[in-house]
Amino acid sequence: MSQDIYPVGVGQPHCYGCLQWDGKRVYDPEHRKIKVDADSFGHCRVNRAPIRASSRCESYFSVR
């Protein structure tokens, strides 16, 4: 499991950057970037199912 750094914000509606996704990640608010394994799974509180971090959905709530 390798973790990479990804940007967060508009135009990047991936599950790893959503408040409703409960998975293993580290958020850097100063640089607005997230360190996460994009192939890992976490629990989505909207869909109530395990979702891959690199997935996308319409119910995206960006981390601040």
Task: Please give a structural write-up.
By secondary structure, the protein is mostly beta strands. 0% of the residues lie in helices and 33% in strands. The chain contains no helices and 6 strands. The chain has strands spanning 4-7, 21-22, 26-28, 33-36, 41-44, 49-52. The chain has a 3-stranded antiparallel beta sheet with strand order 1-4-3, with no helix packed on it. The radius of gyration is 11 Å and the shape is globular. The termini are far apart. The model has no long low-confidence stretch (mean pLDDT 88).
Instruction: Give the CA-CA distance, first to last residue.
Output: 26 Å
Tally of individual helices: 0
Task: Enumerate the spans where pLDDT stays under 50 for 5 or more consecutive residues.
Answer: none
**Overall pLDDT:** 88
Give a nutshell description of this structure.
The chain has 64 residues and is mainly β. The chain contains no helices and 6 strands. The model has no long low-confidence stretch (mean pLDDT 88).
Topology diagram in text:
Elements: E1 4-7, E2 21-22, E3 26-28, E4 33-36, E5 41-44, E6 49-52
Antiparallel strand pairs: 1-4, 2-5, 3-4, 5-6
Short key terms for the protein model shown above:
64 residues; mainly beta; three-stranded antiparallel beta sheet; 6 strands; 0% helix
